[in-house]
Amino acid sequence: NANNVETIIDYVLSRYPNKIDTRRIYLTGYSNGANMIMEYVGSSLARAQRIAAVMPVALCSQLAHFSNIAQGVSAANIANAKLKTWFVQCAIDNPCGLASQDWVDGIEAVPGHVTPRYTVLKDQNPATLYNCSDSLLHDAWSRAYDPSFTASFVNGTGANYGVNLNVYDWFIAQTNV
């Protein structure tokens, strides 16, 4: 949960004092790990402001789920913090569907937000780097963490906000103030 994510961040910062640039804390995770990081940054403005960028992959956490609502998790916290986000998921995600879309819509509904990157992988024949996994309709991580995956296409066609960086180059380009 969000408290566990905060505990890990606090531990790393205390374990390595003066060695971490706190303007460059990045979070990524896939499946349940994606749920945890989004619930963390969505749980408060202060938590969202603590992070420079977040990349949930194969997110299952439904923004309007009763437990998120009960805990005050909101896309507005992410938007108001101007947190940089990059969502990656499969077009046909079994079991999660397009959970990322609600988060993207929620962020974009807040004036002054930073536009989320949103890459939806689908199956094409012949297969490309922008396909979902070859064997599991939830596995977007095999592509998202591949250094040659630059997500220059959404759904296999069209520009992706003109940013052609892999996750590692994208993260390092992000800072919070």
Strand order of the largest sheet: 1-2-3-4
Measured by DSSP, the beta-strand proportion falls in 15-25%
User: For the report, how would you describe the main beta sheet?
Assistant: 4 strands, parallel
Shape: globular
Query: Helix segment count?
Result: 8
Distance between the termini: 26 Å
Give the low-pLDDT segments. none
Computed structural class: alpha/beta
Rg calc = 16 Å
- The chain-level mean pLDDT equals 89
Give helix and strand order, one letter per element, not per position: HEHHEHHEHEHEEH
Number of strands: 6
Helix content: 25-40%
Oligomer: single chain
Structure description:
The structure is a single chain. Helix content is 36%, strand content 15%. The chain has helices spanning 2-15, 32-43, 45-50, 66-70, 75-80, 99-108, 141-144, 167-172, and strands at residues 26-30, 53-57, 84-90, 117-121, 153-154, 157-159. Helix 1 (2-15) packs across helix 2. The mean pLDDT is 89.
What topology emerges from the helices and strands here?
Layout: H1 2-15, E1 26-30, H2 32-43, H3 45-50, E2 53-57, H4 66-70, H5 75-80, E3 84-90, H6 99-108, E4 117-121, H7 141-144, E5 153-154, E6 157-159, H8 167-172
Parallel strand pairs: 1-2, 2-3, 3-4
Antiparallel strand pairs: 5-6
Helix pairs in contact: 1-2
